[in-house]
Amino acid sequence: MAIQFGIMLDFPSIGRPLSLRLQELMPAVEMARDGGFAHVCTGESYPANEDYNFLPAPFLILAALWQQTHMPIATGVTMVPAWQPLRLAYEGAVLDNLCDGNLTRGVSYGHAYDMADFGVPEAGGGDRMDESLALLKALWGGAQGFRGSHVSVNRAIRPLPIRQGGPPLWV
Description:
Blueprint: E1 6-9, H1 18-34, E2 39-42, H2 58-69, E3 73-79, H3 85-98, E4 103-108, H4 112-117, H5 125-140, E5 146-147, E6 152-153, E7 169-170
Parallel strand pairs: 1-2, 2-3, 3-4, 4-7
Antiparallel strand pairs: 5-6
């Protein structure tokens, strides 16, 4: 397996619209794409002050980047426990469809203080995250639901991701 490189984009507090920041970053993204970089990614964060580098809506940024560059996209990390698992399955499937199956999902537990703000109890958090990832793979693979100790869904999702089994998950 060959080593691949990607470009990670930050969105520091700059006091102007994100659309302008994206325009400023496009030359670097295009240079990375043309230079053989494997993907462009951005992370997920939930800033509460002006000192931040990532945004609470990386899927929107990645969809915009795909439309402008057609470069494979990746989430630097998605803080899985901050998401309702069924919603995360749908969002991932739709984004994978928007980018023609060129999505990779980096995932993590996130920070304890972020999870507390989302009402996610610390106890059992690792087990809930593991089950959420299993739910994603099951629903993205076409399962009619998922049953776990912490996470259960009694339905399939549509649309399914473009890639069989859904986007790769980087943990």
